[in-house]
Amino acid sequence: MKTYYAILELDERASPDDIRRAYRRLVLLTHPDRTTDPTQHRRYLAVNEAYETLGDRGRRLRYDAHLARQRQPLPPVFTLDEVAPKPQSAPTAPRRGFRIPFLQNQDPKHIPLHIRYAAEIQRALPRFRMAAYASLLCVLLVAVDFNRTEILPDETVQETERVSSRTKRGDWYYFRIFTENTSFKVNSTIDLAKGDQVMVEQTPWFGKVKNVTINSGKMQGNTLQISNFDLLWSLAVLVAGSAVLVIFLDVRPDRAFNLGFANSLAAFFMVVYLFFV
After folding, report:
1. CA 20 to 30 Å from 109, out of 22, 28, 93, 174?
2. Which domain holds residue 36?
3. Is beta strand 209-214 parallel, antiparallel or unpaired with respect to 223-225?
4. J domain: from which residue to which, for each copy (predicted)?
5. Is the Cβ–Cβ distance between 208 and 229 less than 8 Å?
6. Cα separation, 257 vs 124, whole angstroms
């Protein structure tokens, strides 16, 4: 099989500068303006075709991965006796499917670095696609949960905890309020004491508090909007958008890898927000 590297008279570890120099040299030798030989004209077309692939980084990565796959040995062929247990033999555990590792029979020292990167990217893409489906399901669960409301009508303040923080603008603090079944944060101007009665509106699955109505105490009759969850919705939009791109957009493997990584990172932060913020 004559590869694009052979057409350009190059080694597969050639640098981009080597590829450009070889292309210019061969084009000058085979250009139709310089020779009328039909053989040279066909060679000229082949040189251009080879350079269109090897001169572009993304196309070269895909082409190198294609070459590496073609050079792998064929998987072993099993007979029926080898796969199925014989009647007289003891029962055995079912055989797991096997997978030939990428470039398993080649010495890594002799494999160009960009080919190894391409192999790792190809391994990661199916996992990122599965993660994208999972993140879409998570966004759907969040959307359903946050459009429903669970009411806890008779919650009693069990404890108030003062939480302070120091920033460049100075010190500030807030209170975390604990009741029998939930907890929520209020700013320093809200005066809630142990024993006050409150009604809490929260999401049923993730338990994120939306509103609190104070039924007794100094602030009786006030309703507090605890959060409108702007950060959560921003993360949800980012997760859903990147997941759709990962699943449906046909792009170069390196760009698909970047999209998958961004989706997984956004989904991670969304999960952290749901369970720890």
Report:
1. 22
2. 4-70
3. antiparallel
4. 3-67
5. yes
6. 7
